[in-house]
Amino acid sequence: AFCHCSRNFCALTMRLLSPATLTAALGRPNNVNVVFGGMVRQSVERQPFGRRRRSVTARARRLGSMASSAASESERLFPEELNLIYDSKCNVCKIEMDFLRKRDLRLTGNLDNNNEGTTPTQPPRLRFTDLESGSYDESDPKNGGVTYANGMKSMHAITGSGQVLTGVPVFEKAYQQVQLGWIFKVYEIPGVKSFFNLLYKLFAKYRTWVTRGSNVDSLIQAFEEKKKLEEDKREAMRDACSDENNSCAVKGNVTP
């Protein structure tokens, strides 16, 4: 009887000290080597099916997110975050744009504190397009379809993804890009946002009177007349080059 009890006790003890039991009791991770009686045994536990499925799903989501991000980057209109469309002949506007440009270049390592060029650490976050450059193209997707007339009447900006902003939100977005977004925290005060929007509309309405000595409608009309004159000149040049030998000849006062 004593021997029988001893055998049962030994069997129970061996079962309790088995590698599988020790692994479960001590909370060892999967595929852990367990040393017992001078022998090394590997305890392998299968991961539950539900957990494996969740892991595969999470990985698929990460890959999908990466692919979506790569696709959105390739669809961007320009590498910068924001394209600001402004009137360079407006002194107030030019001062503001110069301030934003220099701060942006300094923050991105393209300009040092002495306003001298350096080896850039990252591309600028702001892009600047001048309405009065003479080469402004409203049909260019980078300019968001903003016409000269609309650009002169109100400040416009286009994000890299193609969203068009106008008015005060342009400055709010631009200041965020140069780490000065905290200035617009006052917008959270009740009534302040409406007040600033009204103030900007008044400024935009009389801006050209103050900065260029003419109303905005007169400037738009002058631009349209100049544009038509240039188109007529190009048409005349095309006619002058349409002879039989396909060479340009001078007709009248038009010189190709």
Physical arrangement of strands within the biggest beta sheet: 4-3-5-6
Oligomer: single chain
Q: Assign a percent range to the helix content.
A: 40-55%
SS summary, helix count: 8
Strand fraction band? 5-15%
| Order of secondary-structure elements | HHEEHEHEHEEHHH
- The outline comes out as globular
Report the span from N to C terminus.
122 Å
Count the E strands.
6
* Residue runs with pLDDT of under 50 for 5 or more positions: 1-6, 28-32, 34-44, 67-71
From the helix content, strand content and strand pairing, which structural class follows? Answer: alpha+beta
The overall pLDDT, averaged over residues, is: 78
| Major beta sheet summary | 4 strands, mixed
Write the layout of secondary structure elements.
Elements: H1 2-16, H2 19-26, E1 32-36, E2 39-43, H3 49-74, E3 82-86, H4 91-107, E4 126-130, H5 148-153, E5 156-159, E6 164-166, H6 168-177, H7 192-212, H8 216-240
Parallel strand pairs: 3-4
Antiparallel strand pairs: 1-2, 3-5, 5-6
